[in-house]
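Exercise 7b. Backbone tokens:
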């Protein structure tokens, strides 16, 4: 038995040195060969140092410590590689001499998976060796407090538009972009859970508003169905970037609801992988406190969406289908779909390779700004600058800092992370970079020495840094919209929301997002000539919200502002009281309506409805307080502190194809 154990130890040690040994190519993942070559190359360098070199000493130490006990030759090679000077992760193996082989394998499997997924960089390095190398460089720069924009000058981008909703120029761009929707790919960046909001689920499963009850994901899918209906059946692709936490839940949500009317073939899920958390400036990986055989990991940032799209092979397929643009949008900003058509039109008119949707930004606001950056030498670029860097950057170039101009706002548009990119230049840029995105690190230091962290950090990448990959001749710009029309993100639990509201900021809670939807819909109806009374604000859980009158307008009712104006053909003949609730879904025309109460009309595909000579009066639906987590109440509703009590009212649902009229107090007549 002793001889057998010694032989096994010797074989494991030899495995660390014999780099030609590897698994058959057929057994590797598509990305594994390059990652395996990277490991073999690093170990080969160790081997060439001779018997007294690093490979010899690493293997000897691991043999002596019993770290390799119970492992296969391939597993032993992986341990030796991690313990090498290049990787610097020998601390992970403390206590492994007494560990069960199955426990060791859990950590090694996790490492191998992350190693296979991390993309190749411009120098040809890939896998965790590249990750550690990048991390050490970026952490050293951060510890030295280097300014990444040193010597840069800042100006407002030349290429961009500041839109006023409803003007002739806005409607012209919207019409141009509306015609492009059928050739657009939509990419939803949906990697987040709702824990921060007090919701035990994925954020896209939250109701965007509680009048219709439609979730964020349902509204986005409905918008794509509306494009299909208006474009004679051409289906718009939907790509969803998920995370390790949300992938299975997103799949289950789509399956449960039949993909919300989309074909499964037009929906593509791309799962983002986590990267190792880093515990020191030396890029040391961190084991979980609960399980020393599991590494602590964190998301790599939403910039991974570009890497995943490049690696998926979808971009050439979309180009072959005649798609011209790709739109990236966030998981809980439901108003973005109102602005996307006009932004597409601006992109086409100005020939933009990338177009960032933006809103007016208050000076000093905690929001990124779209700027033109000019380095001391070389080409400038238009891109997002984070709010915590902007003021210092402006002052370093002799400016007054992050201050307002004559408009009362910063001259630099506020980034909302909805992007429109031209497919051709986008695919070419990713092909040139191999799909790799620029990374950054943002450690929270324990003290002024910047030598230790308060908590583990990681490398990140951001999707809005795409301009760094585009060629110098590519035109990058922005399209700025009014906030009420285009920006209603949901990211804060009620405590943070109340604090933000007290400062005069948008609260960004589920209730605030819902109120923003109702207010935008009311404003658009008024733009079409209708009279919509404003209701008194309501207060729930200490947050004041403008929820009345609740108005839900499905994308199938109106996908664009111009379409909404055509739907509200009666203009001033449409009146909605402050005590009303109105829900419209489908091909519905409002010719004349006097509403003082609750009215819901849902028209299935093939159904056309005209509301003419209708005077609807009833007690309506009212808001009532509920406790978060109340029994029998969906969590996505109760976290708001209120619910809509639906008793009575007029609810019409028409499924049989044909033309119908709604008149009087809600009488339906087939025409």
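Sequence design result:
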């Amino acid at each position: 038995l002793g001889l057998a154990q010694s032989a096994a130890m010797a074989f494991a040690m030899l495995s660390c040195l014999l780099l030609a040994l590897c698994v058959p190519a057929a057994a590797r993942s598509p990305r594994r060969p390059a990652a395996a070559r990277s490991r073999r190359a690093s170990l080969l360098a160790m081997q060439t140092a001779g018997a007294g070199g690093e490979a010899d000493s690493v293997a000897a130490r691991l043999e002596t410590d019993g770290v390799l006990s119970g492992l296969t030759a391939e597993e032993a090679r992986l341990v030796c590689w991690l313990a090498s000077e290049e990787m610097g992760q020998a601390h992970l193996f403390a206590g492994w001499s007494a560990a069960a082989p199955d426990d060791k394998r859990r950590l090694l499997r996790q490492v191998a998976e992350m190693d296979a997924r991390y993309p190749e960089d411009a120098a040809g390095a890939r896998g965790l060796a590249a990750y550690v190398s990048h991390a050490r460089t970026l952490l050293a720069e951060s510890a030295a407090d280097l300014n990444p924009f040193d010597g840069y000058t800042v100006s407002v981008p030349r290429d961009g538009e500041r839109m006023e909703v409803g003007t002739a120029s806005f409607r012209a761009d919207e019409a141009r972009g509306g015609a492009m929707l059928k050739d657009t790919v939509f990419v939803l960046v949906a990697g987040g859970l709702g824990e921060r909001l007090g919701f035990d689920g994925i954020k896209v499963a939250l109701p965007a508003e509680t009048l219709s009850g439609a979730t964020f994901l349902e509204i986005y899918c409905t918008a794509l169905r509306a494009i299909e209906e208006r474009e004679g059946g051409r289906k718009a692709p939907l790509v969803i970037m998920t995370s390790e936490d949300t992938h299975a839940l997103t799949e289950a949500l789509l399956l449960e609801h039949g993909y919300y009317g989309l074909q499964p073939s037009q929906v593509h899920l791309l799962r983002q992988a986590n990267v190792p958390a880093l515990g020191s400036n030396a890029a040391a990986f961190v084991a979980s406190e609960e399980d020393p055989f599991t590494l602590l990991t964190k998301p790599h940032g939403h910039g991974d969406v570009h890497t995943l799209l490049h690696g998926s092979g979808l971009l050439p397929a979309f180009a072959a289908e005649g798609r011209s643009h790709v739109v990236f949008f966030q998981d809980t900003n439901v108003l973005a779909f109102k602005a996307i058509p006009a932004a597409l039109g601006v992109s086409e008119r100005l020939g933009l390779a990338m177009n960032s949707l933006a809103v007016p930004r208050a000076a000093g606001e905690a929001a990124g700004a779209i700027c033109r950056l000019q380095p001391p030498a070389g080409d400038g670029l238009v891109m997002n600058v984070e709010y915590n860097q902007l003021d210092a950057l402006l002052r370093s170039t002799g400016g007054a800092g992050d201050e307002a101009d004559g408009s009362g706002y910063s001259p630099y548009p506020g980034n909302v992370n909805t992007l429109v990119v031209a497919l051709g230049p986008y695919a070419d840029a990713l092909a040139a970079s191999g799909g790799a995105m620029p990374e950054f690190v943002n450690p929270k230091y324990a003290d002024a020495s910047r030598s230790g962290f308060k908590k583990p950090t990681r490398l990140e990448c951001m999707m809005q840094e795409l301009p760094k990959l585009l060629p110098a001749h590519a035109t990058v710009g922005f399209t700025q919209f009014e906030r009420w029309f285009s920006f209603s993100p949901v990211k804060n639990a009620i405590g943070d929301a109340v604090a933000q509201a007290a400062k005069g900021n948008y609260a960004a809670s589920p209730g605030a997002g819902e109120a923003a939807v109702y207010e935008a819909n009311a404003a658009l109806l008024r733009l079409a000539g209708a009279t919509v009374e404003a209701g008194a604000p309501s207060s729930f859980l200490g947050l004041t919200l403008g929820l009345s009158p609740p108005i839900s307008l499905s994308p199938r009712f109106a996908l664009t502002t111009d379409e909404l104006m055509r739907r509200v053909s009666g203009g001033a003949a449409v009146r909605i009281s402050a005590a009303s609730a109105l829900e419209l879904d489908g091909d519905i025309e409002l010719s004349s309506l006097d509403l003082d109460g609750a009215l819901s009309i849902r028209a299935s595909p093939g159904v056309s409805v005209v509301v003419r000579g209708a005077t609807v009066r009833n007690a309506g639906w009212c808001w009532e307080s509920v406790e978060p987590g109340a029994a029998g109440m969906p969590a996505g509703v109760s976290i708001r502190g209120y619910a809509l009590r639906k008793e009575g009212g007029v609810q019409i649902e028409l499924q049989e194809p044909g033309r119908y009229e709604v008149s009087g107090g809600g009488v339906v007549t087939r025409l």
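Instructor comment: The chain has a mean pLDDT of 90. The longest strand covers residues 607-617.
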